[in-house]
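#struct-pred
JK: can someone run the complex with coenzyme A? inputs below
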Amino acid sequence: MYQPAITGHGVFTPEQTITNDELVVAFNAYADLWNAEHAAQIAAGEVDAMAHSSSDFILNASGIEQRFVMDKEGVLDPARMYPRLPARPDDAPGIMAEMALDAATKALTMADRNGEDVDLVICAASNHERAYPAIAIEIQQLLGAGGFAFDMNVACSSATFGIQAAADMVRAGSARRALVVCPEICSGHLEWRDRDCHFIFGDVATAVLIERSDDAQGDRFDIISTRCATQFSNNIRNNNGFLRRTHDQMEDRRDMQFMQNGRKVFKEVLPMVSAHIADHMQAMGWQADDLKRLWLHQANKTMNDFIGKKVLGRVPEPGEQPNILQDYANTSSAGSIIAFSKNSGDLAMGDRGVICSFGAGYSVGSVLIERQ
Ligand code: COA
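RT: done, structure tokens with the ligand placed:
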């Protein structure tokens, strides 16, 4: 058995941002258009008028101030409200592969490695651009990597489940050097016309390189332990799938995009995640005081503040439980890795931390790491 370690990590951030104010102007223009189109039904009491969104609500409910997106113009066009990301020809690299390649190159550079050093690529994301060939195999080819590659999907928990799979294979010796990439084009599965959730998501890609601790050429985080858990719930759901691609899809069905019962998610996932991290740490003999940092999934600031407080047994000090969702919004599986990648360079030898992601399924994954 070999000791697996994270030796590199990287983030691809799209160039375009949408502030809450810009988002709300577009949404309200869309709502006005919709109300004008449905004026007769609204006047007859057959349908409710669509209410305006508000920047204050968004900031207070979520902590989000802006989001990065792959195509701003399409999202903010009140007559469209959907990114313009046309399908590419089969012989051109996919959009997810390109995003992942950027993040992966940064992770490899940090670890002083090349693409050909990699023998496992896992593309772990909540939505994939196509069914097959796997996005991961395309990334493997673009990197010049060997070995094998596959896609996996555990929604917002994809990163930690991917890290567990990769770490286990490095530990067992079936892979020597593994990249876990999380390219998330959340703007493509968010219903930007739904006031309850139009502010939630953004686009990004992350990558972590996992290799044997003994092989590391620079600083590393040893992966001390991983733990994943799932429990079925319909409270976060997306019904898009291959059996739905018939005339159904022409009907503009709301359930073909991200849907959630946000309040229930909030109530049910919080105790599940807090208990999961606490049990995992206890099983490994870790105390709350041993933790230097918590890198949590980035869905909602109140949720993260609550989990941080529950795990540490006190209000986290500034920087102990870093949030990035004010800048990136919820980026599904990538959120905890962005938080880790941007807030781990200062940790000293022996410092310990937990990466934790959670979401649809329900699913929760935790990764206990130690700086070496
Ligand atoms: N602008 C203004 N008002 C809005 C609004 C918007 N964009 N969206 C909703 N509101 C209103 C609602 O109509 C409601 O009004 P009412 O009280 O008069 O009925 C009120 O604000 C509260 O709405 P609600 O949806 O209950 O808000 P909330 O406080 O529960 O916050 C979430 C919504 C989604 C931010 C919150 O539930 C959440 O973060 N849940 C967990 C999300 C999560 O982790 N999901 C996992 C995804 S991976």
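RT: quick notes.
The chain has a mean pLDDT of 95.
Residues 53-54, 57-58, 61-62, 156, 195-196, 236, 260, 262-263, 265-266, 299-300, 303, 330, 359 surround coenzyme A (CB under 6 Å).
JK: thanks, will look after standup
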